[in-house]
Each structure stands twice: as structure tokens, then as C-alpha cells.
Amino acid sequence: MLRGRQAEDQAADYLARRGLTLVARNWRCKGGELDLIMRDGAVLVFVEVRARGRRDFGGAGESITAVKQARLIHAAQAYLATLPRPPACRFDALLLDGDRLEWIRDAFQAD
């Protein structure tokens, strides 16, 4: 099973091969952390990386609960507050379930 750092390395490499550019990794603030911050053209992308070796207790995507989403949104807002001009942004998820990798663009919204 991939550990956190390995999963993030794999996710960053996968997304870079698809044209995204890494801006930051493991950006932290009080109350939250962003695994990967990447650029997709003019769009800033906050990527949550989730890895599961087995699906016995649900897949990687099922672990991005409403509480987790709220923490990610909080952290993204804190990051955007550090920028002089916040760009358009979105939340993606990169899920690693065993050998299966799935990239979900616009996994959730910050409504």
C-alpha cells in the first residue's frame, strides 16, 4: 500500500504529465492542510490525495467526507488570502484504490 508521501508523489507526477504545474505541497494552516496545490492553466487547483490499499471499508473517495471537505475549503480560503489576486480555483481529488488511479476534477464545490 502506498504511504502518504508516495501517494502524493504519484499524484503530482500523474497530474504533471497531464499538464498541471505544481505550486505547493502539504500547505498547512490552523485547522487544515492542502496535499497539492497545482495550476491548470489560469485555474488554481487544490488536490486532495486519498489512497487505500483495499476497499474492505470503502474506497478512497468515500473518505472525503463533508467534514473533510469543510477543512479543505477552510485551508483553501486561508491560502487564497495570502495571494494579491486570487485566481479561479477548483477542488480535485486523486484517488488511489489499490492499483486503480482516478482523477476527479471538480470533486466538490466551496459553495
How are the SSEs ordered, and which strands pair?
Blueprint: H1 4-17, E1 21-29, E2 32-40, E3 43-52, H2 66-80, E4 89-97, E5 100-108
Parallel strand pairs: 3-4
Antiparallel strand pairs: 1-2, 2-3, 4-5
Number of strands: 5
In terms of quaternary structure, the protein is single chain
> Could you say which structural class the secondary elements and strand pairing correspond to?
alpha+beta
Per the principal axes of the C-alpha atoms, what is the gross shape? globular
Distance between the termini: 34 Å
Query: Which stretches of 5+ consecutive residues score pLDDT under 50?
Result: none
Discrete helix count: 2
Task: Output the helix-strand order.
Answer: HEEEHEE
Strand order of the largest sheet: 1-2-3-4-5
What characterizes the major β-sheet?
A: 5 strands, mixed
What does this structure look like?
The chain is 26% helix and 41% strand. The protein has 111 residues and is of the alpha+beta class. Strands 1-2-3-4-5 form a 5-stranded mixed beta sheet. Strand 4 and strand 5 form a beta hairpin. The protein is globular. The chain starts with a helix and ends with a strand. The mean pLDDT is 88.
